[in-house]
Structure to design on (312 residues):
């Protein structure tokens, strides 16, 4: 799902990602700043990290919030049984779930043993003030 | 959403429709009393602003009673915004709000005019008045969003938090 708009968006974002690819879960031309926070002890390496679209009504009404989605990662790195565990506002649940469904992890190597991992990812939807000169 | 689309969205549901049936002095009449006004509203809702304004101007001349007159003024304000004649739109919005200072659609449309003219203090006052009268009006939220985008723009910032101390992570041995 690579479009010209997405390319522009991902080029404009500030990333703190290591090696995983970042894709937008929805087509969007609005520039979104993305930060990925992870600790070094994560058992599984992300392969594709999809970024949810900021809900337009939330942006319009200046609503911030967060949503946590829990899921299982199988040995091949696929997401299984994703479910919204918590959402500060219902409008954040759907984009968070959609992003998780489009994400994946690196497959386990043979010496890592056969495990599945249950984990959770929290998306924080924040709005940063922009100086007016930047958009005019 | 691009700007013209947002303007249209902010306006389109603020057009007043004339009821198609009513009862007056024991007579039941089917159909709108002021056809020009009703047709004008339909044209405006369909996006045919010039035709809508023309019909509504005719409807205003034959308007009966305060309610019909206010509907005509409100729709003229909306229609003139749609054809980007902001001075005329403002004149009709002002007439409407002089006639009825509790008309939230009048405040909505006048706030939109002020946003388009970058008269933000006036826009803010009208938005506050409109939201006081009808706090749940969607079009007021749309115009408020346009006002905020002009005066306090924001950029979405999404943080993806995979840290374990925040999100409990449990490894389960796969049963093979």
């Amino acid at each position: 799902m690579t479009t010209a708009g997405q390319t522009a968006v991902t080029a404009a974002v500030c990333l703190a990602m290591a090696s995983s690819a970042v894709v937008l879960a929805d087509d969007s031309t609005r520039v979104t700043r993305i930060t990925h926070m992870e600790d070094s002890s994560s058992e599984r390496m992300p392969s594709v990290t999809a970024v949810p679209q900021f809900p337009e009504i939330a942006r319009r009404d200046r609503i911030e919030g967060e949503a946590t989605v829990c899921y299982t990662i199988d040995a091949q790195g696929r997401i299984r049984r994703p479910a919204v565990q918590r959402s500060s506002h219902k409008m954040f649940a759907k984009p968070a779930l959609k992003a998780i469904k489009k994400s994946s992890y690196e497959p386990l190597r043979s010496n890592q043993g056969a495990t599945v991992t249950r984990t959770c990812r929290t998306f924080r939807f924040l709005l940063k003030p922009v100086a007016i000169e930047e958009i005019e | 959403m691009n700007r013209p689309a947002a303007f249209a969205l902010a306006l389109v549901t603020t057009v007043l429709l004339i009821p198609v049936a009513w009862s007056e002095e024991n007579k039941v009449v089917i159909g709108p009393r002021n056809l020009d006004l009703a047709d004008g509203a339909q044209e405006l809702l369909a996006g045919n602003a010039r035709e809508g304004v023309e019909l509504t101007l005719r409807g205003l001349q034959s308007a009966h009673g305060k309610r019909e007159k206010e509907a005509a003024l409100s729709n003229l304000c909306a229609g003139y915004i749609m054809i980007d004649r902001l001075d005329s739109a403002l004149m009709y919005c002002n007439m409407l709000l002089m006639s009825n200072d509790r008309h939230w659609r009048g405040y909505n449309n006048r706030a939109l005019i002020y946003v388009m003219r970058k008269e933000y203090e006036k826009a803010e006052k009208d938005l506050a008045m409109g939201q006081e009268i009808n706090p749940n009006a969607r079009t007021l939220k749309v115009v408020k969003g346009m006002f905020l985008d002009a005066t306090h723009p924001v950029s979405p910032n999404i943080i993806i938090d995979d840290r374990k101390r925040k999100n409990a992570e449990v490894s389960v041995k796969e049963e093979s």
Summary: Residues 3-151 of chain B form a domain with the Serine Threonine Protein Phosphatase 5, Tetratricopeptide repeat fold (CATH 1.25.40.10). Chain B touches chain A at residues 1, 141-142, 144-145, 148, 152-174, 176 (CB under 8 Å).
